[in-house]
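Job type: complex structure
Entries:
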Amino acid sequence: MAIPYVWMIVTSIKPIEEIQTYPPSFCVHHPTLQPYKELFSLLPMARYMLNSLFIAVVVTLSNVFFCSLAGYAFAKHHFWGRDKIFLLLLSTLMIPYQVNLIPGFIIVKNLGWLNTFYALIIPNLAMVFGIFLCRQYIMSIPNDLIDAAKIDGCSEFGIYRLVILPLIKPALATLTIFTFLSQWNSFVWPLITIHTSSMRTVPLALSVLNSQFGFGTNVAMVMAGATVVMLPVLIVFICFQKYFIKGIASIGLKG
Amino acid sequence: MRVNMPSKKSFLKKLFEQRYSYLFIAPAAILFFVFIFIPVIASLSLSFTRYNALSAPHWLGLDNYYRLFVKDPRFWKALRNTSLYVLGVVPLGISISLLLAVAIDQKIRFKNFYKTMFFMPFVTSVVAYSVIWKWLFAGEKYGLINHWLMKLGINPVNWLLSPTWTLPAIMIMSIWAGLGYNMVLLLVGLQTIPRTFYEAAEIDGANTWYKFWHITLPLVRPTLLFVVIMSVINSFQVFEQVYIMTSGTGEGVGGVLDCALTIVAYLYEIGFQRFQMGYASAVAYILFAIILIATLVNMKVVRSRFEY
C-alpha cells in the first residue's frame, strides 16, 4: 500500500547512476539532494507553493465563515423561500462539476480573471457542500439556546458568533480539513484558467514537470516534485489522521 | 378555498423583518447563482450551439448530440473506455475494500496504522500519485512493476505506451487509490452490526464464510449502496489520472491510439484544446445524464437484490 510513496522518496534522493542501474533497488548507496536543488532552480517552486498556500488558506477561511453563516440561516431562521432555495442548492450537488467547467471558464474569461488569483479563489469562496454540512450540524442545536440569547438581547450576528460558532467546532474542523485539501490538490480548474507560469499552483507545476521529464532520465526530479506536493499534506494528515477519518466517516462525501 | 394572502405592504414588511436571514445567506447565494446555477443552465443552452468563445454562439438545435452519437467514433471510444474503467474499478475496488474492512474490523493489532496507510491516497493529490505510478509502470526493466513481473517469470509490458495496457494500468492505480476511502466508510457500516449476531451464529455452528454471507453482507448493505454509488459517480468522471499518465507519450490526452480516452478527457480536448465549447457542453450533459441514470439504476438494483 505504501510502496509507491516509499519508492517516490527513494527515487527522489537517488543519483542518476543509481536510477539507471539494474535491478531497481530500495537501497540508496549515495543519497543526494541534487534532484531537489535542480527542481527549485529550474522552477520557482517556492512561488508555486506560496500560490497554492494562499489560495487554500483564503478559500478555507472564507468557506468556514460564509458556509456557517448561511448554514445557520438555513437551519434556524424562518424566511420566505428558505426551503426552496436550500433545495435548489442541494440539487446542484448531484451535477458533475464538468458541466460547469465550460460556462465557468467563459464567465471567468469575460470578467478578465484568467491567469489571476480571482479565477482560483472567488468561485470557491462558499461551496454548497459546506453550507449543507453546517446546516445539518446546526439543526441539532436546541432552539432554546438561541431563544435564551435573544431574550438576553443578543443581536442576530451576536447569536451566530457567540452561540452557534462555538457549538459547531467539530463541523468546522471537518470543513477546514476538506476545503484545504481539495484546494491544495485542485487540478482541473487551475489547468483551464491558468496559463502563465508565475501563477501556477503546485499540482499544475508538477503536471508541467511530468509532461516535460516524465518519460525522460530526470525522473528523480519529478519524484522530488511529487514529494514537495504531498509532503505538507501528508504531515498534516499523519498528525490529525483521527479527525480526517472521523470526518469522512461522518459525512462520507468526497471533498 | 380560503387563502391567507398578506397584503403587499405586510409582505414587504415581513421581508424587511427577515433581512438578517437574507443578509446571512447573501454571499453564498450570490456566488452560487453566478458560478453554479447560471453555468448549469448556460451549459445546457450552449450544448445546442456552435461556440468558440470568441464569436457569438451559433444555434444548431440538436446537431451536436446527433454528431456525437452518429458521426463521432472517438466519442464512442471514450464511452467504451469509461465504461470498461467503471466496470473494472467499481466491483474490484469495492470487493477488495470490503474484505479489507472485514479484516481490519477483527481484533487485530495496529488497526489505526493500517487505516492511516490505506487512507493516504485520499489526501494526496491525484497528480502526485499518478506521477509516481507512472514511474512504477515505467517500460522495460527500470519500472518497479516490470521488474517484479520479470522476477515472477512474466514478460514485461510497456504499460503506458501500449494501447492494450494503458487503461488497465490506470485502473490498477485507481483501485489502489480508492481502497482507503471505501474501506473507512464500510468500517463504519460494519461497526453498526451488533456483535451478538455473530455470537449467536457461532453457537449455532456457523463458519466464517457463512457469517460473512448471511450476517455481514446483508447488514452492511446500506453502506455498500452508498459506497457503490459514490464510486460509480467518481469513476465516470475519471480524468486527472488519464491526463497525467498519458502525457509525454507524444499523443493526445487519450494516450496511444486513444486507448485511454475517457469521456472527461475527450471533453477537455474538445473544449479546451480545440475550443469547440458548444460540442464540449453536449458531452458534459451526456456525462451528467449517464451519471444520473447509473445512480438511479444502482439504487434500484442494490435495493431489490438484498431487500428482506
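Summary: Chain B touches chain A through 86 residues (CB under 8 Å). Residues 73-105 of chain B form the longest helix (33 residues).
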